[in-house]
Structures are given as C-alpha cells and as structure tokens.
Amino acid sequence: MNFLTFKLWIPIISEIIEVLFYLVCVLFTIAYLTVAERKGMAYIQRRLGPNVVGWYGLLQAFADAVKLLVKEIIIPKESNGFILLISPVITLITALLGWLIIPFGPALTLGDLEYGILFSLAIGSLGVFGSLLAGWGSNSKYSFLGSIRSTAALISYELVLSTVYIIILMFCSTLNLTSLIESQRIVWYCIPLLPLTILFFISTVAETNRPPFDLVEAENELVAGFFTEYSAGPFVFFFLAEYGNVILMSSASTILFFGGYLFPSTNLSLEPSLFNSLFEGLLYGASFALKLCFFMYLFVWVRASFPRFTFDYLIKLCWTIFLPILFGLFLFVPSILYLFNSLTL
Hints:
- The protein has helices spanning about 5-45, 60-70, 80-95, 115-125, 130-140, 140-170, 175-180, 195-205, 220, 230-255, 275-305, 310-345.
- The chain is about 70% helix and about 0% strand.
- It starts with a helix and ends with a helix.
- Helix 3 (about 80-95) runs parallel beside helix 10 (about 230-255).
- The chain is mostly helical.
- It folds into 2 domains: about 1-70; about 75-345, no CATH class.
- The chain is globular, with a radius of gyration of 22 Å.
C-alpha cells in the first residue's frame, strides 16, 4: 500500500474509530447504569445491593455479562429460529442507531443531520418490530401477548412524543438537534414548558417499557413477556437495548427541555486557544453528563417508588389524559407566541 492509498483511507479509518469509541462509551454506560440502578434501588428499599464482585460491586455488570454469554442458546422446537434470533439484533441496532444524532457539544456528534428529529422518530418507531417479531417467532402465547402490548403502547405513546416534538418546533423552528440546543441559550424550554416536560418524561418511561409501565414483560401475568423464550446471548441483546433506550430517552429529555450541553450561563467567552477550546468542550460534556445522570436517576427512582399499573389504565392514561392536555397546549402555545410577537412588533 503506497502513501497515496493510505492517505485516502485515513478519513474512513477515523470514522470507524469514532463510531467504535461512541459504541464502547454507550455500552459502558449501559453496564454501569445497571449497577447504579441496583445500588440505588437497594438504598431506597434498605438493602445492600451488589457489593461482592469488585470494589463496591463495580464489576457486577461484567460478571452478569460473562454469565449470560457463556450459557447455551436454547431455541424452542416449535418456534421460528430465524425470526427468534434476528429480533434481538433488530432491537439492539435500532437502540444504538439513535445515538448517531445526539450532540454532546457544538459540532460534537456522529451525524449532525438537518432533519435529526425526524430521524429520531423514525428509528424509535422501528424498534417495536424487534419485540413484535420476538413474540411472533417464539410461538408462545405469553410472548405473543407481550408483543401485542408493546405495539399498542408504541402506537399510543409515539403519538404523545410526536406531539411534544411539534410543540417544541414552534419555539425553535428547526429539525436539527444542535440548532434546537443553541436556541435555548437564553432560557431552557423546561421553564416556559414545565407541564410539557413532565408529560414527556412520563411518556418516555412508558415508551421504554420501564416500571411502572412494564406491562410488556409483566412477570405476574406473562412470565417475562415477549422475551419469555430467550436465554443467554439473545437475552443480553434485549437487555442492552432496554437500558440503551433509557439513556437515549434521557438524552432526548436533556436536549429538548434542559438545554442539552449548555450550562446555566448564557455565554462562555474565552480567548481562542487550544487549551480554552478543550476546557470549553469538557464543560459542555460535563453539563450534558450531569443532566443525563439526573434523568437516569429519575428512571430508577420511579421504578423503586411506584407500583405497576394495569394495561387498560396505561392506554387510558394516554388517550384520555395526555392527548387532550397536549392538544390544548398545541393551541395555547402558538397563541402565546403570536401574542408576544405582536407585542414586540
């Protein structure tokens, strides 16, 4: 390979390294989110939690991963083996693709798409095919009922999330996530849109099938829901996808309502230099990480504090409570914006 050919390969190699770096960071975050959740729930419920494997139980996630990956993959005789194995792959890939457009700082993202919000909604809608095919291919009544519940919940709460995005677009007038964050330098949207922030967070809990909305995998009704027949490696894929979606939805809440990587000060004026640029990037990253940890802790706190709802109440909560409130805000917010625009003119 001559120097000219190597020079042509440098951009491709750098892109691959960047994607691998993002992937490793996301997987490590998922691993330690499981440990943090178990420790947090233990403190809330007056238990110890993981404290044996590694110092302070920090290696428990790796022990669980090794334990599951070395087990035998069992495929039921009457199931469709191909669909059974491809379903967790679809679920995990769609969960990881959502990170392509997440900006951790100015110009610090894998893909700064002009229509990033539409990409996020499209990828989120495709994720349901993994759970639906898992229940169908398992040839089990429990799995099939779990997948049907997953589809019904997605249809309901995807509509709520889409309406929230439309209301946010009235403020920022852009589908690009970086531009959306930059539009919050004066005020974060959680201040004028606090009711919308609460509705969006509750909807993300339902969208990710987390307690108290984990009706898809209700163990007292459906054994384990759509992944009842899964074990070993395929089960790990579903597990990673679930916690990956929790972090992804926490990132969405941070970006939409809490200014993303912005910190409370409106402007950061530093002399242009390499050190100051690195310092500014670290501040942006730390700001995003702190807000992300706050929302991830809310997921843990909700799981430990609230009992599971019934499935009919979950659907009723969306169609009879959330949607009327959102449609009211859909009419109220542009009216207020038009009023303020008229006053300024």
